[in-house]
Amino acid sequence: MTATLKPYPAYKDSGVPWLGDVPAHWEVRRQRTVTKMLVSNVDKHTHEGEVPVRLCNYVDVYKHNIITDRLPFMRATASQEEIDHFRLQIGDVLITKDSEMWDDIGVPTLVAYESPDLVCGYHLAILRPRKDVICGDFLLWALQSQGVASQHYILANGITRFGLSQDAIKSVWLPIPPLAEQRAIAAFLDHHDRLTRRYIHAQQRLIKLLTEQKQALIQQAVTRGLDPDVPLKDSGIEWVGKIPAHWNVLMNHRIFREEIRPYDGSPEIQLSLSQRDGLIPTKDMQERSLQTSTYDNWKVTLPGDLVLNRFKAHLGVFFCATLRGIVTFHYGVFCPRIELVTKYFELLFHTKPYRTIFAGRSNGMTVGLQNLSNQNFYGVRVIMPPISEQRAIVDFVEKQTAQLESAIAAARRQIALVREYRTRLIADVVTGKLDVRDVALPTDATPDTLEEIDADFDDEAADTDALDTQEDADADNEYHGYQ
User: Fold this and answer.
1) Directed axis angle between helix 352-361 and helix 179-224, to 10°?
2) CATH code, domain with 75
3) Residue 285 lies in a domain
4) For residue range 144-158, what is the model confidence (pLDDT) as tens digits?
Protein backbone atom coordinates (compact mmCIF):
# COMPACT_ATOMS: atom_id res chain seq x y z
CA MET A 1 0.00 0.00 0.00
CA THR A 2 2.73 2.49 0.92
CA ALA A 3 4.99 1.48 -1.97
CA THR A 4 2.65 3.18 -4.49
CA LEU A 5 2.48 6.55 -2.71
CA LYS A 6 3.67 9.52 -4.73
CA PRO A 7 4.39 13.21 -4.05
CA TYR A 8 1.82 15.94 -4.61
CA PRO A 9 1.77 17.52 -8.09
CA ALA A 10 2.80 21.02 -6.90
CA TYR A 11 4.70 22.45 -3.93
CA LYS A 12 5.58 25.82 -2.41
CA ASP A 13 8.12 27.04 0.13
CA SER A 14 6.65 26.74 3.62
CA GLY A 15 8.87 29.50 5.02
CA VAL A 16 9.81 27.17 7.89
CA PRO A 17 13.34 25.68 7.50
CA TRP A 18 12.62 22.27 9.08
CA LEU A 19 9.45 21.82 7.03
CA GLY A 20 10.79 22.79 3.62
CA ASP A 21 8.34 22.66 0.71
CA VAL A 22 4.69 21.79 1.33
CA PRO A 23 1.85 21.06 -1.10
CA ALA A 24 0.85 24.26 -2.88
CA HIS A 25 -2.66 24.33 -1.41
CA TRP A 26 -1.60 23.75 2.23
CA GLU A 27 -1.14 26.38 4.92
CA VAL A 28 1.54 26.57 7.63
CA ARG A 29 0.32 28.17 10.85
CA ARG A 30 1.30 28.65 14.47
CA GLN A 31 -0.46 26.36 16.92
CA ARG A 32 -2.00 29.37 18.67
CA THR A 33 -4.10 30.11 15.56
CA VAL A 34 -5.59 26.62 15.19
CA THR A 35 -6.13 25.45 18.78
CA LYS A 36 -7.28 26.80 22.11
CA MET A 37 -4.74 25.89 24.76
CA LEU A 38 -5.57 25.16 28.41
CA VAL A 39 -2.88 24.32 30.98
CA SER A 40 -4.32 22.30 33.83
CA ASN A 41 -3.60 22.99 37.50
CA VAL A 42 -5.72 20.14 38.90
CA ASP A 43 -3.53 18.09 41.24
CA LYS A 44 -3.90 14.48 42.44
CA HIS A 45 -5.09 15.35 45.94
CA THR A 46 -8.52 15.04 47.53
CA HIS A 47 -9.75 18.20 49.24
CA GLU A 48 -12.78 18.53 51.49
CA GLY A 49 -15.57 20.53 49.94
CA GLU A 50 -14.52 19.82 46.35
CA VAL A 51 -16.29 17.67 43.77
CA PRO A 52 -15.11 14.06 43.18
CA VAL A 53 -13.60 13.65 39.71
CA ARG A 54 -11.66 11.17 37.62
CA LEU A 55 -8.28 12.50 36.62
CA CYS A 56 -6.58 11.91 33.28
CA ASN A 57 -2.99 12.25 34.46
CA TYR A 58 0.51 12.32 33.01
CA VAL A 59 0.96 8.54 32.81
CA ASP A 60 -2.37 8.10 31.01
CA VAL A 61 -1.18 10.49 28.31
CA TYR A 62 2.40 9.26 28.12
CA LYS A 63 1.51 5.58 27.74
CA HIS A 64 -1.56 5.75 25.51
CA ASN A 65 -2.20 7.02 22.00
CA ILE A 66 -5.91 7.41 22.72
CA ILE A 67 -7.86 8.21 25.89
CA THR A 68 -10.79 5.79 26.20
CA ASP A 69 -13.12 4.58 28.94
CA ARG A 70 -10.92 1.49 29.36
CA LEU A 71 -8.30 3.42 31.33
CA PRO A 72 -8.28 3.18 35.16
CA PHE A 73 -8.40 6.92 35.84
CA MET A 74 -7.21 8.21 39.20
CA ARG A 75 -9.79 9.46 41.70
CA ALA A 76 -9.34 12.99 43.00
CA THR A 77 -11.33 16.17 43.64
CA ALA A 78 -11.57 19.54 41.92
CA SER A 79 -13.49 22.78 42.26
CA GLN A 80 -16.51 23.29 40.03
CA GLU A 81 -14.62 26.06 38.24
CA GLU A 82 -11.74 23.68 37.49
CA ILE A 83 -14.16 21.01 36.26
CA ASP A 84 -15.86 23.50 33.93
CA HIS A 85 -12.50 24.70 32.64
CA PHE A 86 -10.55 21.44 32.30
CA ARG A 87 -13.24 18.84 31.53
CA LEU A 88 -12.09 16.76 28.57
CA GLN A 89 -13.97 16.82 25.28
CA ILE A 90 -13.86 14.29 22.47
CA GLY A 91 -11.37 15.53 19.88
CA ASP A 92 -9.08 17.26 22.40
CA VAL A 93 -5.38 16.49 22.15
CA LEU A 94 -3.38 16.36 25.40
CA ILE A 95 0.38 16.80 25.54
CA THR A 96 2.95 16.31 28.30
CA LYS A 97 4.16 19.76 29.34
CA ASP A 98 6.89 18.87 31.87
CA SER A 99 9.28 15.94 32.25
CA GLU A 100 12.63 14.87 33.62
CA MET A 101 13.70 13.91 30.08
CA TRP A 102 13.75 16.38 27.21
CA ASP A 103 12.44 13.84 24.69
CA ASP A 104 9.37 13.15 26.86
CA ILE A 105 8.14 16.70 26.24
CA GLY A 106 5.13 17.18 23.96
CA VAL A 107 4.01 13.53 23.88
CA PRO A 108 0.41 13.65 22.53
CA THR A 109 -2.74 11.60 22.97
CA LEU A 110 -6.21 11.96 21.47
CA VAL A 111 -9.30 12.15 23.69
CA ALA A 112 -11.91 9.69 22.38
CA TYR A 113 -14.06 9.57 25.54
CA GLU A 114 -15.68 12.28 27.61
CA SER A 115 -17.65 12.30 30.84
CA PRO A 116 -18.89 15.07 33.17
CA ASP A 117 -16.39 13.97 35.83
CA LEU A 118 -13.31 13.40 33.62
CA VAL A 119 -10.83 16.27 33.84
CA CYS A 120 -7.26 16.92 32.75
CA GLY A 121 -4.57 16.63 35.41
CA TYR A 122 -1.46 18.60 36.30
CA HIS A 123 1.67 18.80 34.05
CA LEU A 124 -0.50 18.49 30.94
CA ALA A 125 -1.83 20.91 28.35
CA ILE A 126 -5.13 20.61 26.49
CA LEU A 127 -5.03 21.54 22.81
CA ARG A 128 -8.65 22.05 21.75
CA PRO A 129 -8.82 22.17 17.94
CA ARG A 130 -10.68 25.00 16.23
CA LYS A 131 -13.01 22.74 14.29
CA ASP A 132 -13.18 24.97 11.23
CA VAL A 133 -9.39 24.71 10.78
CA ILE A 134 -8.02 21.45 12.20
CA CYS A 135 -9.32 18.12 13.50
CA GLY A 136 -7.94 16.35 16.57
CA ASP A 137 -7.16 13.13 14.65
CA PHE A 138 -4.78 14.98 12.34
CA LEU A 139 -3.30 17.09 15.15
CA LEU A 140 -2.39 13.88 17.01
CA TRP A 141 -0.35 12.64 14.07
CA ALA A 142 1.15 16.04 13.33
CA LEU A 143 2.48 16.27 16.89
CA GLN A 144 4.08 12.82 16.51
CA SER A 145 6.00 13.76 13.37
CA GLN A 146 9.70 14.39 13.92
CA GLY A 147 9.74 17.98 12.73
CA VAL A 148 6.90 19.14 14.96
CA ALA A 149 8.09 17.11 17.96
CA SER A 150 11.60 18.53 17.67
CA GLN A 151 10.20 22.05 18.13
CA HIS A 152 9.05 21.03 21.61
CA TYR A 153 12.50 19.67 22.45
CA ILE A 154 14.16 22.92 21.32
CA LEU A 155 11.66 25.19 23.07
CA ALA A 156 11.74 23.31 26.40
CA ASN A 157 13.50 25.02 29.31
CA GLY A 158 15.44 23.30 32.07
CA ILE A 159 18.55 21.34 33.02
CA THR A 160 17.48 18.55 35.40
CA ARG A 161 13.77 18.95 34.63
CA PHE A 162 12.34 20.25 31.38
CA GLY A 163 9.15 22.21 30.74
CA LEU A 164 7.26 24.02 28.02
CA SER A 165 5.90 27.50 28.59
CA GLN A 166 2.46 28.38 27.30
CA ASP A 167 4.00 30.70 24.73
CA ALA A 168 6.33 27.93 23.53
CA ILE A 169 3.41 25.55 22.99
CA LYS A 170 1.44 28.21 21.15
CA SER A 171 4.37 29.13 18.89
CA VAL A 172 4.86 25.65 17.38
CA TRP A 173 4.51 25.58 13.58
CA LEU A 174 2.05 23.09 12.06
CA PRO A 175 1.36 22.07 8.45
CA ILE A 176 -2.38 22.59 7.81
CA PRO A 177 -4.02 20.74 4.87
CA PRO A 178 -7.73 21.25 4.08
CA LEU A 179 -10.01 19.52 6.61
CA ALA A 180 -11.07 16.73 4.22
CA GLU A 181 -7.43 15.99 3.54
CA GLN A 182 -6.62 16.00 7.26
CA ARG A 183 -9.24 13.31 7.79
CA ALA A 184 -7.83 11.23 4.91
CA ILE A 185 -4.31 11.51 6.36
CA ALA A 186 -5.52 10.55 9.84
CA ALA A 187 -7.48 7.56 8.50
CA PHE A 188 -4.47 6.36 6.50
CA LEU A 189 -2.09 6.62 9.47
CA ASP A 190 -4.63 5.03 11.83
CA HIS A 191 -4.94 2.04 9.50
CA HIS A 192 -1.20 1.71 9.00
CA ASP A 193 -0.62 2.03 12.74
CA ARG A 194 -2.99 -0.86 13.48
CA LEU A 195 -0.99 -3.06 11.13
CA THR A 196 2.28 -1.88 12.66
CA ARG A 197 1.16 -2.48 16.24
CA ARG A 198 -0.12 -5.94 15.43
CA TYR A 199 3.20 -6.81 13.82
CA ILE A 200 5.22 -5.47 16.75
CA HIS A 201 3.03 -7.28 19.25
CA ALA A 202 3.44 -10.51 17.26
CA GLN A 203 7.22 -10.07 17.47
CA GLN A 204 6.96 -9.33 21.17
CA ARG A 205 4.97 -12.53 21.69
CA LEU A 206 7.67 -14.41 19.80
CA ILE A 207 10.36 -12.85 22.01
CA LYS A 208 8.35 -13.80 25.09
CA LEU A 209 8.01 -17.42 23.96
CA LEU A 210 11.68 -17.71 23.01
CA THR A 211 12.73 -16.16 26.32
CA GLU A 212 10.50 -18.54 28.26
CA GLN A 213 11.98 -21.45 26.32
CA LYS A 214 15.48 -20.19 27.12
CA GLN A 215 14.61 -19.80 30.79
CA ALA A 216 13.12 -23.29 31.00
CA LEU A 217 16.18 -24.80 29.34
CA ILE A 218 18.56 -23.06 31.72
CA GLN A 219 16.51 -23.79 34.83
CA GLN A 220 16.32 -27.48 33.94
CA ALA A 221 20.08 -27.63 33.36
CA VAL A 222 21.23 -25.74 36.47
CA THR A 223 18.80 -27.39 38.91
CA ARG A 224 18.58 -30.95 37.52
CA GLY A 225 21.84 -31.40 35.63
CA LEU A 226 22.29 -32.92 32.17
CA ASP A 227 21.53 -36.58 32.93
CA PRO A 228 17.75 -37.18 32.64
CA ASP A 229 18.03 -40.52 34.46
CA VAL A 230 20.00 -39.34 37.49
CA PRO A 231 18.48 -40.23 40.90
CA LEU A 232 16.94 -37.23 42.66
CA LYS A 233 16.57 -36.07 46.26
CA ASP A 234 14.69 -33.27 47.95
CA SER A 235 16.89 -30.18 48.08
CA GLY A 236 15.19 -28.93 51.24
CA ILE A 237 15.00 -25.48 49.59
CA GLU A 238 11.58 -24.00 49.07
CA TRP A 239 10.93 -23.18 45.40
CA VAL A 240 13.83 -25.35 44.16
CA GLY A 241 12.41 -28.84 44.77
CA LYS A 242 14.31 -31.98 43.80
CA ILE A 243 17.96 -32.00 42.70
CA PRO A 244 20.41 -34.79 41.69
CA ALA A 245 21.12 -37.02 44.67
CA HIS A 246 24.90 -36.52 44.52
CA TRP A 247 24.72 -32.69 44.56
CA ASN A 248 25.41 -30.75 47.75
CA VAL A 249 23.51 -27.88 49.37
CA LEU A 250 25.63 -25.16 50.99
CA MET A 251 25.03 -21.74 52.50
CA ASN A 252 26.28 -18.82 50.40
CA HIS A 253 28.63 -17.75 53.20
CA ARG A 254 30.56 -21.00 52.70
CA ILE A 255 30.86 -20.38 48.95
CA PHE A 256 31.45 -16.62 48.60
CA ARG A 257 32.99 -13.77 50.58
CA GLU A 258 32.74 -10.07 49.83
CA GLU A 259 35.93 -8.57 48.45
CA ILE A 260 36.37 -4.78 48.59
CA ARG A 261 39.22 -3.57 46.41
CA PRO A 262 39.20 0.25 46.35
CA TYR A 263 39.66 1.83 42.93
CA ASP A 264 42.61 4.23 42.71
CA GLY A 265 41.55 5.88 39.44
CA SER A 266 44.16 4.16 37.29
CA PRO A 267 43.23 4.68 33.60
CA GLU A 268 44.31 1.23 32.39
CA ILE A 269 41.50 -0.57 34.17
CA GLN A 270 38.78 -2.12 31.97
CA LEU A 271 35.04 -2.41 32.38
CA SER A 272 34.31 -5.83 33.80
CA LEU A 273 30.63 -5.98 32.92
CA SER A 274 28.45 -4.60 30.19
CA GLN A 275 27.30 -0.99 30.42
CA ARG A 276 23.69 -2.05 30.62
CA ASP A 277 23.30 -1.91 34.38
CA GLY A 278 24.50 1.54 35.31
CA LEU A 279 28.24 0.92 35.05
CA ILE A 280 30.49 3.64 33.69
CA PRO A 281 33.46 2.77 31.45
CA THR A 282 36.77 4.32 32.45
CA LYS A 283 36.87 6.18 29.13
CA ASP A 284 33.64 7.99 29.96
CA MET A 285 34.91 8.80 33.43
CA GLN A 286 38.04 10.35 31.94
CA GLU A 287 35.98 12.37 29.48
CA ARG A 288 33.98 13.75 32.40
CA SER A 289 37.26 14.82 34.05
CA LEU A 290 36.42 13.18 37.36
CA GLN A 291 38.93 13.78 40.13
CA THR A 292 40.64 10.94 42.04
CA SER A 293 38.70 11.90 45.15
CA THR A 294 35.46 10.86 43.44
CA TYR A 295 36.63 7.23 43.26
CA ASP A 296 36.23 6.60 46.98
CA ASN A 297 33.10 4.50 46.55
CA TRP A 298 34.20 2.57 43.46
CA LYS A 299 35.33 -1.04 43.72
CA VAL A 300 37.51 -3.21 41.51
CA THR A 301 36.32 -6.54 40.10
CA LEU A 302 38.53 -9.39 38.94
CA PRO A 303 37.74 -12.25 36.56
CA GLY A 304 35.68 -14.89 38.37
CA ASP A 305 34.05 -12.49 40.85
CA LEU A 306 30.29 -12.68 41.34
CA VAL A 307 28.92 -9.15 41.08
CA LEU A 308 25.56 -8.36 42.65
CA ASN A 309 23.39 -5.31 42.11
CA ARG A 310 22.01 -5.03 45.63
CA PHE A 311 18.97 -3.01 44.60
CA LYS A 312 17.98 -5.39 41.80
CA ALA A 313 18.92 -8.75 43.26
CA HIS A 314 15.27 -9.77 43.30
CA LEU A 315 15.36 -9.49 39.49
CA GLY A 316 18.34 -11.80 39.19
CA VAL A 317 20.90 -9.09 38.48
CA PHE A 318 24.00 -11.16 39.22
CA PHE A 319 26.94 -11.25 36.83
CA CYS A 320 30.19 -13.13 36.50
CA ALA A 321 33.04 -10.66 35.99
CA THR A 322 35.20 -11.55 33.01
CA LEU A 323 37.70 -8.65 33.07
CA ARG A 324 39.45 -6.46 35.60
CA GLY A 325 37.02 -3.60 36.00
CA ILE A 326 35.08 -1.23 38.24
CA VAL A 327 31.63 -1.04 39.78
CA THR A 328 29.90 1.50 42.01
CA PHE A 329 29.10 1.14 45.70
CA HIS A 330 25.61 -0.08 44.75
CA TYR A 331 27.18 -3.42 43.82
CA GLY A 332 28.48 -6.22 45.97
CA VAL A 333 31.63 -7.96 44.72
CA PHE A 334 32.03 -11.55 45.95
CA CYS A 335 34.94 -13.85 45.25
CA PRO A 336 34.78 -17.65 45.62
CA ARG A 337 35.98 -19.28 48.85
CA ILE A 338 36.23 -22.65 47.11
CA GLU A 339 36.90 -23.86 43.58
CA LEU A 340 33.83 -23.27 41.44
CA VAL A 341 32.59 -21.96 38.08
CA THR A 342 31.13 -18.52 38.79
CA LYS A 343 29.20 -18.49 35.53
CA TYR A 344 27.15 -21.43 36.79
CA PHE A 345 26.02 -19.38 39.81
CA GLU A 346 25.17 -16.42 37.59
CA LEU A 347 22.85 -18.71 35.63
CA LEU A 348 21.45 -20.28 38.81
CA PHE A 349 20.69 -16.96 40.49
CA HIS A 350 18.87 -15.73 37.36
CA THR A 351 16.33 -18.56 37.57
CA LYS A 352 12.82 -17.96 38.84
CA PRO A 353 13.25 -20.02 42.05
CA TYR A 354 16.27 -18.01 43.15
CA ARG A 355 14.78 -14.68 42.11
CA THR A 356 11.82 -15.60 44.33
CA ILE A 357 14.15 -16.47 47.19
CA PHE A 358 16.14 -13.23 46.88
CA ALA A 359 12.95 -11.18 46.62
CA GLY A 360 11.77 -12.70 49.91
CA ARG A 361 15.05 -11.85 51.64
CA SER A 362 15.37 -8.30 50.28
CA ASN A 363 14.65 -5.31 52.49
CA GLY A 364 12.59 -2.31 51.39
CA MET A 365 9.08 -1.01 51.13
CA THR A 366 8.81 -1.19 47.34
CA VAL A 367 10.21 -3.50 44.66
CA GLY A 368 12.23 -0.67 43.13
CA LEU A 369 13.94 0.11 46.47
CA GLN A 370 14.60 -3.41 47.72
CA ASN A 371 18.11 -4.02 48.96
CA LEU A 372 19.78 -7.40 49.46
CA SER A 373 22.21 -7.12 52.35
CA ASN A 374 25.31 -9.29 52.74
CA GLN A 375 23.72 -11.07 55.69
CA ASN A 376 20.63 -11.97 53.68
CA PHE A 377 22.71 -13.02 50.67
CA TYR A 378 24.96 -15.21 52.80
CA GLY A 379 21.92 -16.83 54.42
CA VAL A 380 20.61 -18.31 51.17
CA ARG A 381 21.13 -22.05 50.63
CA VAL A 382 22.57 -22.92 47.24
CA ILE A 383 22.67 -26.15 45.26
CA MET A 384 26.23 -27.19 44.39
CA PRO A 385 27.03 -29.69 41.61
CA PRO A 386 30.56 -31.11 41.32
CA ILE A 387 32.80 -28.63 39.52
CA SER A 388 33.07 -30.87 36.45
CA GLU A 389 29.30 -30.74 36.11
CA GLN A 390 29.28 -26.98 36.64
CA ARG A 391 31.59 -26.62 33.63
CA ALA A 392 29.54 -29.05 31.55
CA ILE A 393 26.29 -27.25 32.41
CA VAL A 394 27.71 -23.85 31.45
CA ASP A 395 29.03 -25.21 28.13
CA PHE A 396 25.70 -26.89 27.40
CA VAL A 397 23.67 -23.76 28.18
CA GLU A 398 25.89 -21.52 26.05
CA LYS A 399 25.58 -23.82 23.04
CA GLN A 400 21.88 -24.55 23.41
CA THR A 401 20.81 -20.95 23.96
CA ALA A 402 22.90 -19.44 21.14
CA GLN A 403 20.21 -20.14 18.54
CA LEU A 404 17.46 -18.82 20.80
CA GLU A 405 19.40 -15.64 21.48
CA SER A 406 19.98 -15.19 17.75
CA ALA A 407 16.24 -15.51 17.08
CA ILE A 408 15.44 -13.04 19.87
CA ALA A 409 17.97 -10.56 18.46
CA ALA A 410 16.47 -10.94 14.98
CA ALA A 411 12.97 -10.20 16.32
CA ARG A 412 14.28 -7.11 18.10
CA ARG A 413 15.92 -5.90 14.87
CA GLN A 414 12.62 -6.34 13.04
CA ILE A 415 10.86 -4.26 15.68
CA ALA A 416 13.49 -1.53 15.40
CA LEU A 417 13.19 -1.44 11.60
CA VAL A 418 9.40 -1.26 11.70
CA ARG A 419 9.50 1.52 14.28
CA GLU A 420 11.99 3.44 12.15
CA TYR A 421 9.79 3.02 9.07
CA ARG A 422 6.71 4.13 11.01
CA THR A 423 8.46 7.30 12.19
CA ARG A 424 9.52 8.17 8.66
CA LEU A 425 6.09 7.44 7.19
CA ILE A 426 4.32 9.68 9.72
CA ALA A 427 6.72 12.55 8.94
CA ASP A 428 6.37 12.16 5.17
CA VAL A 429 2.57 11.95 5.19
CA VAL A 430 1.94 14.70 7.76
CA THR A 431 4.26 17.16 6.00
CA GLY A 432 2.93 16.42 2.52
CA LYS A 433 5.94 14.60 1.08
CA LEU A 434 3.58 11.73 0.18
CA ASP A 435 0.00 12.04 -1.09
CA VAL A 436 -2.56 9.68 0.50
CA ARG A 437 -5.75 11.42 -0.64
CA ASP A 438 -6.79 8.70 -3.07
CA VAL A 439 -5.58 5.65 -1.12
CA ALA A 440 -8.33 3.05 -0.87
CA LEU A 441 -8.12 1.60 2.62
CA PRO A 442 -9.09 -2.08 2.89
CA THR A 443 -11.99 -3.02 5.10
CA ASP A 444 -10.66 -4.28 8.43
CA ALA A 445 -12.21 -7.63 9.29
CA THR A 446 -11.43 -7.00 12.97
CA PRO A 447 -12.03 -3.27 13.51
CA ASP A 448 -10.48 -3.13 16.96
CA THR A 449 -9.12 0.18 18.19
CA LEU A 450 -5.44 0.86 18.80
CA GLU A 451 -6.12 0.77 22.53
CA GLU A 452 -7.82 -2.64 22.28
CA ILE A 453 -4.80 -4.00 20.42
CA ASP A 454 -2.49 -2.64 23.10
CA ALA A 455 -4.72 -3.86 25.94
CA ASP A 456 -4.69 -7.39 24.53
CA PHE A 457 -0.90 -7.28 24.41
CA ASP A 458 -0.63 -5.93 27.96
CA ASP A 459 -2.89 -8.71 29.24
CA GLU A 460 -0.70 -11.36 27.60
CA ALA A 461 2.52 -9.78 28.81
CA ALA A 462 1.39 -9.24 32.42
CA ASP A 463 2.72 -12.56 33.71
CA THR A 464 5.92 -12.70 31.65
CA ASP A 465 8.90 -14.01 33.64
CA ALA A 466 12.01 -13.58 31.49
CA LEU A 467 15.42 -14.91 32.46
CA ASP A 468 17.47 -11.93 31.38
CA THR A 469 16.36 -8.69 33.04
CA GLN A 470 17.96 -6.61 30.30
CA GLU A 471 15.96 -8.48 27.67
CA ASP A 472 12.86 -7.60 29.68
CA ALA A 473 13.87 -3.95 29.83
CA ASP A 474 14.64 -3.81 26.11
CA ALA A 475 11.31 -5.40 25.24
CA ASP A 476 9.46 -2.98 27.47
CA ASN A 477 11.29 0.00 26.02
CA GLU A 478 10.60 -1.17 22.49
CA TYR A 479 6.90 -1.50 23.21
CA HIS A 480 6.31 1.67 25.21
CA GLY A 481 8.77 3.69 23.16
CA TYR A 482 6.78 2.71 20.12
CA GLN A 483 3.66 4.27 21.55
Assistant:
1) 90
2) 3.90.220.20
3) yes
4) 998 888 898 888 887
